Amino acid sequence: MNFQDGSYYPENQEKLVITAAPYGPEWMPADFPQDIAVSMKDQVQKAVDCYNAGATVLHVHVREDDGKGSKRLSKFNELLAGIRARVPDMILQVGGSISFAPEKEGDTARWLSDDTRHMLAELLPVPDQVTIAINTNQMNVVEQMLPQDVQGTSLATPEGMHAYREMTIPAGPEWVEEHIRRLSRKRIQTHFQLANITQLETVERMMRRGVCNVPLVLTWVAIGGGFDQPNIYNLANFVRAVPDGAVLTLESSMLNVLPLNMQAITMGLHVRCGIEDNIWAQDRSSKMSTVRQIEQLTRISREFGREVANGQEARRIYRIGEFYASAEETLARNGFTPNRKAGQRGFVQHALAA
């Protein structure tokens, strides 16, 4: 991404899109009973509350009646239908992990089988997005957490810590390409959850081969444990590699969330918050609900002078419903340089204006 003079001026930036992740499948209801919704009615209401607070993208997981993360697509269908009826403009982004929470005590947190995850393309009502990981990767979500981040929660137990230390993401090239094809056929946007530049480079190569003709709407997930650490050097390096036509959101965990989101707001990027990422106020004196986190980001962004997008504006910014017919169109719309033509020498650039 190129930052010219005036790039930090709010009048030159898109309005802020806030993604809310309020369902937090790694936590048990007892970890934050005031904010973790369990009944279907309460899970739908949580989405409504997030939208009313200013979030226009909802990262969707769903719980069973016993409070455990659900792996049943019928439960996802029920939740999606309930949210669509209440907040039709909200962008519904289904988490491609389908609740990575362990099924029973002693299990390692894991993503479901390739075939099961492909079934996300069959959800009804159809979600706007499904998140996708690129390249099989370690996802040790607790590696950079401190003891005080998890004290008094299920993650502080030896079983909880073991379950999430050992999690990996299965995302080989054959599965990824097939998943994007299935989602695109159903007009579901692929939302890329990327750990580092190598995964971004894989996405670019897929686009250059014409097997990924979609907008580059992505999140930089800086959580450590196989993903980038959230520091200014990794962030700058990643942002510099992202093309100008992309839509980039920043994500981290625990007390890194707010500082990283403040950087995203100033840079014209987009933000994600919610109890899936962090349950604490910055001084850890109290737990902080997803709605309070959204309200905080809304206030900070407006104090910076950057307005928050409404539902329809977020859909335009996120290019919901947009798909491309060829590699050439995909590269141009996302801001990549074109593919090299046969016999072409030197650096490749976009066609010069006549």
Automatic annotation (TrEMBL):
InterPro entries: Aldolase_TIM (IPR013785), BKACE (IPR008567)
Cofactor(s) in the UniProt record: Zn(2+)
A GO term for molecular function: metal ion binding
The keyword Translocase belongs to this UniProt entry's keyword annotation: no
Keywords: Metal-binding, Transferase, Zinc
Name the UniProt record assigns to this protein: 3-keto-5-aminohexanoate cleavage protein
